[in-house]
Amino acid sequence: MRLSDLAAYAEEKYHITEQHKWNEFPGFSVLVEPSEGKWAALLMHRWDPELGEETELCDIRCGRAVLGELSEPYLSEPFRMHGDKWIGVRFDSSTDPDTVYMLFDRAVRGSSRGGYALTVSAGNGPASEKYHDTPLPFMQGLSAAGAVPSRIREMMKLYTYSDGSFAEKCRNFYVQGKFMEDYEDDAPFGGSLTRYYTTYHDLSVRQLRGYMTWRTLVRKGRFEPISTSLAYMYIYELLNGIGADSPEDTLGKMRAFETGYIDSGTGGADMRKNLRRWMLEFGVINGVDRETLAGYIGGETAERDGALAVLRSCADRGDGEVFDALCVFGAGLRSSAVIKKCGEEGKRLFASVWRYCETHRKNTGTDLFAACFGTQRRMRWHPLENAVYWNRRSAGDAEYVLNECHRFICRDGKWTEQCYRRIYFQKKVFDSFIRETDRKLRQYLKTGNPLKARPADAWADKIIDAAIEEDRQAKLEAKRKKIVIRYDELDRIRRDAAYTRESLLTEDETEPETGAVPAGEETAAEERETGCTAALNERQILILSSLLRGEPVSGELRSWNEMAEVFADALNEALFDELGDTAVECDGENITLVEDYREDIARILGGSMK
Prior knowledge:
Strand content: 5-15%
Number of helices: 24
Radius of gyration: 32 Å
Structural class: alpha+beta
Helix content: 40-55%
Number of strands: 13
Number of domains: 4
Distance between the termini: 48 Å
Largest sheet: 5 strands, antiparallel
């Protein structure tokens, strides 16, 4: 296991991005739990002089008690952090990913859900009482008693104090929310508020009345701007059935919120991502019909699962369906010369090559799908853990099949998720296979610029050649089947042939010109001479030139108001026909050049600037 696997897991599950906080220590980074800003893990790349190689280490904030529970050789006391909340993990071939992910889950949940207790003693005697650190913002503005509606006063009395846990906070939110379910107000609040996991108890009277006024308008279809923390509270209400009659009604109102609030530009991308995630999790734990739920979740998960289902069982799938599934994972595949110049025939051949590999696993000795996407894995699943949600019912044994590649299982009240996990995908294997297929198909169809053979892709040659040969034989067989000899018409055919031959042999017959360049060859020759077929615009040429010189380009992209990731995708698509592969990579705001293609880019730029 690698440190990058843990970083990818944190990004996929919790939307936690790796933070590099110290320029002088580039080998150190942290994963920060978002709700309170506490460190969940410290990631370290260190050089080991004894081994003569770089080692990967990590300190995780999951509690020292873990070392007593698990006796794994890669677990130890922390390497850099201090205190009994931290343990150390050494990353190598023996490190079990599922164990590390479980420890990281514990670190994140432990950071964001804990209560804080203060023990007060009288004199030198034993501790007499425990008080929990719970804010009392309702006290703000209570000096004018008449300004507080009686309904709000009654709601405030419903809050109970016990262990100060997050579960207690969720329960109080549900109880108070059901009490205020039909409440309406007309006291707008124009201020701002920034909190995580916001509930009624966290608000002042002015803020609460302002939220209730905004909610009144939302329920009438008017989505006015409001602080993000308060907008999230409305979603929490729906998840808890506050203001909704059924699970299906909850999903419908969440979609209405996405359309009216987020699509209007008021909400951000993170809110949409959370909303889609919660719709899926809410639908699963409430057993919403699979077809109904599919209409709400959409997005990347549904697209990825659908493509995996097609590629895993492609024998009876159509060529277009298989090709579209390949495009989900193959960036720039639609820009290949095979597709641009051969259209549907190119799509058919890409699909046929993949289908051949999957249906001839025994003969080829290669399970291509497993090599690219691994196997389904089952891991603990904590639905709605990053939302204010009170689970009022104990979960019984259940199984929810989202699709043929994705299911959720509940046993003894604990949920697990079974699916193909993106962090285990071998993208390099998939990209290698697609590029080599593209190269071989260009040769087979005699189209496009020839791609360079790469030693790293040679493993796929035998499989692809066999698939192409099967297609060639099928075409020959189809031609043979069209030949029908009618012996009773042979005399007539001979007479017609003799007549045609005599009519053609005339004195005016001219000899065909020699040395003429066939149509289209002159243009192709010019392209090979200049070395440039990539359709690059001026900005793309400038960025590539800077990358060749080793200069940073993030500042220039910002001056153009260009997003680095979007610019890199467009640049790769423009170069795909020429290189058949990804030429630049993007990591946040930085674009870097793939070193294997430095010479090719220099050649292309030389042609572009002639």
